[in-house]
Amino acid sequence: MRRKKQDTFTEEEWLALPLCEAEGCSHKAPFRAPKVPGRREYYNFCLDHVREYNAGWNYYHEMGGEDVDENVRLDMIWRRPTWSFGNKAKVNSPYEIEDPLNVAGFTGHIRPKGRGMVALNRSEQQALKRLNLSYPFTREQLKAAYIKMVKKHHPDVNKGCKRSEERLKKASEAYDVLNKFLKSGTFDAN
Q: What's the average model confidence in pLDDT over 31-59?
């Protein structure tokens, strides 16, 4: 129950109030002061004595040094749970984010995943670059990009050029990585 100001009490409420618990005081006690931190036990005081009591109140009186430090630390963060920055947590943002310096603990672009967001891993990013795709992409776009690379770098077309063979191998690996990604169902392909 929240206490009213002295002049807002009705006569019945004022008469029902207890007397001040300070030694030798016979005034009415509309003010409460805690006996011990964290418990719901209170002293009843008049205005003069509650001011005196509050001036000498020490919340940390019964706590040890470590408890005081922990309490101060919790007060700095408003007693809300916190997590360390850069713990590779999944980011929930409506924006595409790049983190090239790995400040937030993940690398690459962020892509939509149902209601949340997921970071592309490095192999998925490289596969997208090799096939000249950008996120988001569909299975049809992936297949078309792969066929285009095969036609461009096939050994029969390039007369056995080793460089083209390497590019074809990398394109094939990229196709496998992105195909697994699509099959894993980590996002909704439109």
A: 86
Residue 177 one-letter amino acid: V
What amino acid occupies position 5? K
Superfamily classification of domain 121-184: DnaJ domain (1.10.287.110)
The mean per-residue pLDDT over the stretch 154-181 comes to 85
Tokens found for residue 35: 């006996």
d(C-alpha 19, C-alpha 3), whole Å: 15
Q: Extract the tokens encoding 44.
A: 């009843």
- Angstrom CA distances, 70 to 58, 67, 81, 139, stand at 16, 5, 13, 53
Contact 98, 111 (CB under 8 A): no
Instruction: Give the side-chain half-sphere CA count within 13 A for 83.
Output: 7
| pTM of this structure | 0.39
CB 124 within 8 A of CB 178: yes
Q: Are 165 and 152 in contact (CB under 8 A)?
A: no
The full DSSP string for 148-159 is HHHHHH-TTTTT
- Phi first, then psi: give them for residue 109, nearest 5 degrees: -85, 160
